[in-house]
Amino acid sequence: YEEEEEEEEEEEEEEDEPVSGLKRRSSSAPVSYAEDDDDYDSDDDDVPLASLKSSGKKTTPKKTQKTKKTTPTKKKTTPTKSKSTPKKKSTSSSATSSGTSSSGTDNRSKSSALFSSGCVKGLLIQRLLCRWWHAIEWPQEDITTNPPKGFDTLDGFPGVFIGTSGENVGKIKDFRDQDTKPSFQNFVSKNSSELKELLVAALQRQLEELIQHEGAGTSTEKDLKDLLKWANKVNAAKADKEAVKVLKAVKIVS
User: pLDDT tens-digit profile of 217-231?
Assistant: First the structure.
C-alpha cells in the first residue's frame, strides 16, 4: 500500500514540473527526421506535373543557319557552224548514168508542160490516150508469152508476168517495148499532124463499135461525133507552133 502511494506522489510531482524543465529535457534528447523525410517525399509525389514543367526553364534549340548551295552556272557554248561547201548540181550526164536518157527527161518535162497548159497539141494527146487501142497495136505481135520460172502470166496484159513463188513473189516483169508504148511522154515527140490522124482513126473505130453494140442515137454517139468534128478542124501546123511557145515560156526549149 505504501508503494502505491509513493508512485502516485511521483506522478503528481511530474505533472507539477514547470515548462522550463520540459524544454531542457526536450533539448537534450536527440531529434529524429525519419518521419519528416517520409512526409517530404510524399509531398513531392503529390506535386502535379504541370507545376514541375512550369518551374523548369525551356531551352529552345538554336536554329542552325542553312548554307545555300551555290550551283555553278553553266556557260552556254554556241556551236560553231562549219561552212558547208555548196553541192554542185548534177548535170544531165548524171541523169543518163542512172539509166534515164536525156531524151526521156526532156519528154517528161514537155509532157507535163503541155498537159497543164491546155494547148491544142496537149488536148490531142490527152484525147488519143483515152482510146489509143482503137488506132494503135501494142504490144508487138512477136512478144514472148512464155512466163519465166517462178512467174505466171498476168491476164489482160500480154508480155507482163507476176512472180508467184520463192523470192519473186509479187515482182513484175514487163517485156513490152517501153519506147513505143502509148504514153504522154512518147506521144509528145510526135507532131500534131500524126496525132490528129491517130485521133480521127480512133474516134471513127470507136463509133463503129458503139453503134454495133448499143445501136444508133445514143448520147455517147453524139459526144463522139462532136469530138470527131473538133479533131478534123484542128490546124496541125498552128498547134505545133503553139506548143513551141508553151515550152519556151517554161524554158524547156530555146
Answer: 999 999 999 999 999
Cβ–Cβ under 8 Å, residues 253 and 240: no
Residue 57: which residues within 8 A CB-CB, separation 6 or more? none
**Terminal C-alpha separation, the chain:** 179
Q: Which helix (H) or strand (E) holds 156?
A: none
Distance of CA 201 to the CA centre of its chain: 53
Task: Write down the pTM of the prediction.
Answer: 0.56
Cα distance between residue 254 and residue 242, in whole Å: 14
Q: What is the DSSP string of 47-85?
A: S-HHHHHHHSPP-PPPPPPPPPP-PPPPPPPPPPPPPPP
**Is residue 161 within 8 Å of 148, Cβ to Cβ?**
yes
Per-residue cell: 216: 444508133
